[in-house]
Amino acid sequence: MSSSSSQVSVTRRRLTTTGAFALAVATAATLATAPASAAPRPVQDYKGFIVSPARTQISFTYSPTGFVAGTRNQHEARPGLSIVKLYIADYVFKHGTPADKARASEMIRTSSDAIASQLYRKYPQSISATARTYGLRNTHSNAHWGYARTSSYDSMKFVETKKRRNYNDPVLVAMRQATPRAADGYAQDYGTAVLPGAVGTKWGWSDDRRSVHASVSYGRDFTVSANTWGNKHALTNDVRGAFRGTMGAPGRPAPGRQLTPVQQAATNWANDMERAALNAPGSSVNERAIRDARRGLDPWIMRLP
After folding, report:
1. In whole angstroms, how far apart are CA 37 and each of 65, 68, 221, 254?
2. May I ask the CATH architecture of the domain 56-240?
3. pLDDT tens, 213-232?
4. Residue 218: which of 105, 15, 103, 59 has the closest Cα?
5. What is the pLDDT of residues 247-288, one digit of tens each?
6. Where are the domains of the chain?
7. C-alpha triplet 33, 293, 196: angle, nearest 5°
């Protein structure tokens, strides 16, 4: 096959896949405009669990109502990475010296390992004490902070509790002031931070920058946390795939309503179609159209029995 013929074939396949989305969207009923929350809406299966690959755990709460949703594995204790720096910092902000409090803020903003080690040597009880204070049952300290463990549920619960008590808590302020790159040069731009409405985030990653990644973010009306066995792109993709539209958007179920088996099957099909379209050669030029088309299917799916 000539290169020109191959290019035409690839283009046709891409247009066919994208066209399928457009056709489905065109057949969907037009819904009346209604005010919507800025909080992202989790995609749930018929049992109420957030839909995501087993490699990833996700926990979410909608602040106005207290609605909570998570993946089946959200309580699994996983490597805490730099997420546990939030727990160290919280203890230091309560019991530390002014100089240490300043270091704690910098530790969150830049994810400095050096500062974390310095503070943890001085306050070795910080992680376990914070876990007790906030009821973080999946969080376990270690002789070295880097080996502590936590879960997406615990980090979500911690940040949401802080936010409800004081939106300008120093932990939350530091998360809002995170630097584009961490102290070690790693970009702080992935995972839950990509969700619309996120204003503050803490990230975590394994030393090899491939094995494990995590993040916890909050907005005015939601908090969300995620951890994946994989690189930052895997985490970001799984987070994006776990949310569709916003809480309270027209055509969506009320918070806490579960998808029926038929709706779940249709959602799985639509997600598979989106992944196929995004993985097609040259799809990058049409990524926005593909994602918009996928979102347009949601009202149609929610009308299924």
Report:
1. 12, 16, 8, 12
2. 3-Layer(aba) Sandwich (3.40)
3. 999 999 999 999 999 999 99
4. 59
5. 864 334 444 455 677 777 787 787 777 767 766 776 555 766
6. 1-34+250-305, 56-240
7. 65
